Amino acid sequence: MQKSEFIAKIKTLAKTVYAEKSNPLADAEEIQDQVIKFPIIEKFPPLKGVMEDLFDFQYEPFVKDIEWVAPRPTTFRIKLVNGADFFLIYQGENEEGKGLFIAQVAGKKYYLESLPEEQQASEAIARLLRFKFADTGKAEGGDDLDLGGDEGGGDLDLGGDEPAAEPVGDDTGVPATVDDL
Fold first, then answer.
1. Is the pTM of this model over 0.85?
2. Do 125 and 60 sit in the same domain of this protein?
3. Bridge partners of 105?
């Protein structure tokens, strides 16, 4: 057992004991469910470290759920409270035993072993949290595209309705249409 795992277990036990003392009538399983908000973090300890690095030890109020979405490469979807999400992709461990992750935020990848990219990823996550996404709300009818619209925007002549007029003064001898042959 590593030092970080031991510390995590002590914190969990301390929270459980505190919850039992504060509400002695609660069921033990209910208390355990209250203590562990994100059980996936207990299964993957390196994930907790990267979450604390990205959110500065305050990720619980901003994260709604953490999902394990792919086994290889191990990929986690982090769902934020405003409906946005981003991905953390586990890349193994470096020489010091720290987990290497790639954060994919709004389609851009940040390699978190480098401090500048970790800071850029934190700023990108802050932007996701700052701006609430608009609901696109597709129409129930399906794939109806309204390219013309009634909002104006000028008339665009794509041709096809009227035959093209012969240019004035064109004496090249080439007929303008097939009917002129």
1. no
2. yes
3. 108
* 84 in the same domain as 22: no
My answer on whether 48 and 90 are in the same domain is: yes
Shared domain for 31 and 73, answered yes or no, is: no
What is the full DSSP assignment across the chain?
--HHHHHHHHHHHHHHHHHHHH-TTS-HHHHHHHH-S-HHHHH-HHHHHHHHHHHTT--TTTEEEEEEEETTTTEEEEEETTS-EEEEEEEEE-TTSPEEEEEEETTEEEETTSHHHHHHHHHHHHHHHHSPPPP----TT-S---SS-SS---------SSPPPPPTT--SS--SSGGG-
Domain end point (choices 130, 145, 171): 130
Q: Which one of 130, 149, 166 terminates a domain?
A: 130
In a domain, 180, yes or no: no
Per-residue pLDDT of the chain (181 residues; tens, 9 = 90+): 677 778 778 877 777 776 666 666 656 565 555 446 777 887 888 888 888 888 887 778 888 888 888 888 889 999 888 888 899 999 888 777 777 899 999 889 999 888 889 999 999 988 988 886 655 555 555 454 444 445 554 555 555 555 555 555 555 667 677 776 6
